[in-house]
Request: fold
Amino acid sequence: MEACPINKSQLKSLDFVLNNAFRKIFLTKLYDIANECILFFSCSVSDAIYTRILKFLAKLQSTEIGLCKRFVKNTVDELATVHECLRVMTTCISS
Reply:
C-alpha cells in the first residue's frame, strides 16, 4: 500500500467501506453521522494512507541499500506532496 499510488476512485471506495462499517457499528443510516464518528475517532482512510506513505518514504530515504538509493531523489518531491496533502486535510478538519 505504501509503494502503490492510490487514485481518487480507490480512495472513495475505501471511504465508502469505512463509512458503512461505522454506520453498522453505531446503528445509523445517516452518512453524515458516520463521517463525524470517523473524524472523531481519527479513522480517516486518507489520513492512514498518507501516514503510511510518509513512513515508507522516510525509510526509503534513510536506506543504505544501493538499489533503493537510486529512488531517493524522487522521494523528496513525493514527501513534499504528501506533506501538502496532510496540511490541507488538517486545515479542512479544523475549520
Summary: Residues 8-94 form one domain. The chain has five helices and no strands. The chain has one domain: 8-94.
